[in-house]
Amino acid sequence: MPINFFKHIANPDDDSVIKFTPSDDLKEFVEGYYVFNANYCDGRQLFFNDGYPVVAFMQTKNEKAKISIDGQIKWVGNTWVCGGILKNIYCESSIPFENFLIIRFYPMTFFKLFGIGDDYFEKAQVFDFSEIAGYGFEMFNEAYYSSFSIEKRIQVITSFLSEKIDCYSYPKVLIDILDYINRQGVLTVKDLLETYTVRLNYKWLERNFKKHLGISPKNYLLIRRFLNAYLDLHSFRSKDLLQIAINNGYYDDNHFIKDFRRFSGVPPKTYFQNIAASSRCCNCEDILPTVNGPVYTNSRRDY
């Protein structure tokens, strides 16, 4: 989903997002339903995932999204999935993100809920929900878009997902480990093994992350680190790039720039210049960082 949505998810007091708690029978599967009220500008948006797969719903049934995946164009329908490690993926469509609804799933149970392999996101990171939704999707899709209130739409989602629940066991400690990672912010695999409340075996951690989350612990921590650094860069205009990089566990700013290129396709200065230029077309410059501020000026290299 658009990377800037994560700053609202992380802030429960943010007026730009409303979180709805799932029903009791879905609490092991769904982390939450999020409705975004922010008036984001239409146009190019960097897509990202923090390790929690999401299903996103367009506002109307006939909407589609134009997705650029490493320069290749792909269209997805009114309901689509986003997960795994996203690199240089952008939404190119003019989508009104106001009242945009997203279901955020726990990765441990997502794959079993939809009967897919834990390597599914290695093949595709953004795709139509119909590809994995299974039996009853057309009826579900019709019922969802025939409902006009958010509350009614969530009831339709709850009914559809509840029918898919089957007996599935996984190490419950994984939920606590993810919560611990989220609280700590900056961790390496070594840090996690040494500082978690109980001693963790690396082979156990590697095996269970790949089996239940579809991603290695190293890659999970990597995308969390980049996301935290990106949000710092977007939000704190007075910090310089080196300080942001170090605060988020990078050796130096060059390593952060390398990751930024990896996930967005361009260095941070170019990325935010492009966003600023686009924002002037929709008068929403106030949500963007200052491109010419001290965070982007450094004589040693071109960011």
TrEMBL record:
- Residue span(s) of domain HTH araC/xylS-type: 205-274
UniProt lineage? Bacteria, Pseudomonadati, Bacteroidota, Sphingobacteriia, Sphingobacteriales
Q: What is this protein called?
A: AraC-type DNA-binding protein
Per UniProt, the keywords (alphabetical) are: DNA-binding, Transcription, Transcription regulation
Superkingdom field:
Bacteria
Species name: Olivibacter domesticus
Which molecular-function annotation in GO is an example for this chain? sequence-specific DNA binding
* Leader sequence segment: none
Kindly give the InterPro entries that the UniProt entry links to this protein: AraC_XylS_family_regulators (IPR050204), Homeodomain-like_sf (IPR009057), HTH_AraC (IPR018060)
Cell division keyword on record? no
Known Pfam families for this protein?
HTH_18 (PF12833)
